[in-house]
Specification:
globular; 3% strand; mainly alpha; 10 helices
């Protein structure tokens, strides 16, 4: 099946779309640029989802933080299709890892996916998508900065936000925005406390 054929599967569960994209590219590795082309008008949402899911794993978040930051800024600036820099477009993921990711997402996100359906509203508007972009950029910063327990909460909210974005569901996207804001507040507070303790410790040493 060609990548173009995936565009017609607009009602397919997200995990199934991910699996079909992996099947569309028979090579051992798939580049982010190829996936962006395969996802079509869902490219932003699907790339966010693919970059955020590994971010829930310990030690993996910072690896995906930079491309997530770039995508978030592009959305925030109003781009409707991602423009990946060459160095990022050439970055690849193992096809086997992508298939495992699809399987894991179908188990972990299946319940949420059942509630996702096209529902126009504020968060499906250009302004709403810009807000999603800037929130995603902030989440990316939280993923890049080291901190105990600061990756999961904002990443989970951003995953829900991405699910709503993919299916053009303003309600689910709104839930994701709320969860993302709460997660970012928590992560920012933890990093703030760690920074304050670091400054105090440095003062004691001096």
């Amino acid at each position: 099946m060609s990548p173009e054929g995936l565009h017609a599967e607009d009602t397919a569960p997200i995990s199934r779309i991910v699996a079909e994209v992996a099947a569309a590219f028979p090579g051992e590795r798939i580049s982010l640029g190829e996936m962006a082309e395969a996802f079509g008008d869902r490219a932003f949402g699907m790339l966010l989802l693919l970059l955020l899911l590994p971010g829930l794993l310990p030690g993996m978040a910072s690896v995906f933080g930079t491309p997530l930051l770039i995508l978030g800024v592009q959305m925030g600036l109003g781009l409707t299709v991602p423009k990946l820099p060459g160095i990022l477009a050439r970055q690849t993921i193992k096809r086997s890892d992508l298939l495992r990711l699809a399987s894991a997402s179908s188990k972990g996100l299946g319940r949420i996916e059942r509630y996702v359906k096209p529902r126009p509203g504020f968060f499906t508007s250009p302004l709403g998508e810009r807000i999603i972009g800037w929130l995603t950029a902030y989440v990316a910063i939280m993923l890049i900065l080291p901190g105990p327990g600061t990756n999961g909460p904002p990443a989970f909210g951003n995953i829900v936000m991405a699910l709503g974005l993919i299916e053009h569901d303003s309600r689910v996207t709104g839930w994701g925005v709320a969860l993302t804001v709460l997660g970012c507040v928590f992560a920012t507070a933890v990093l703030g406390v760690l920074g304050w303790l670091g400054v105090k410790a440095l003062g004691w040493m001096i």
